[in-house]
Amino acid sequence: MAANDATPKAYIVEHLDPELGPWSELEYLAIARESQAAGAAFCLSSLPAGFRVPEALSAVPAFRAENRGVEELYAADKSRVCLLDPSAAKDLSPEDGDKFDAFLFGGILGDDPPRDRTSELRKKGFEGRRLGPVQMTTDTAVRVTRLVVQGKTPLHDIPYVDFPELKFNEHESTEMPFRYVKDDEGKPIMPEGMVELIRKDSDKAIDDLF
Ligand code: SAM
């Protein structure tokens, strides 16, 4: 079956980390809620047997947990799936919303410098698209994809903020090595609770030095 504009979109994050850490949990909850609001589905695939899905996530109707991997889920029609790949030769465009109905992302936390773990999905042979040259967090990558394929906004018209500095107080701040979508106040859009989590993690890192 070929995709078209009216086909509901599915955002699939293939789980590649050994466990679901608190950062990923907040990112996935943001993806689930935003997918729900946009009339799309969000699937977390390749979950190990016995994986405990956080309650807040399973409470979102658009969310689906899957033990099967994306290759098995789309065995019948791989051409419907677009892998969002920082190394792809072509950038994502609004027309890709007509070509694909499932958009696949690596379920990995961002790293600096990037370790190209998306290559684990590239090997599976899905057609790839890039979201520009700068690494995004997974929830940002899904947000940007949705704005392009559902909102029909060209990639270069989306407002971004690169490497924002989060200031916790007069003395503490941290620079995030990623690209984010900018909100109306010029601030990076981040999952609910993320700034607080980053602050706690940076306090812990400082405590660990002593
Ligand atoms: N450093 C990571 C790596 O090893 O590939 C990138 C991980 S990124 C936090 C998580 C996912 O978001 C990637 O697997 C990819 O699907 C998507 N992503 C992030 N930035 C992207 C970009 N600029 N272009 C395409 N996809 C991107």
From TrEMBL:
Protein name from the UniProt record: DUF431 domain-containing protein
A UniProt-annotated Pfam family: SFM1-like
InterPro entries: SFM1-like
CDD domains cross-referenced by the UniProt entry: Arginine_MT_Sfm1
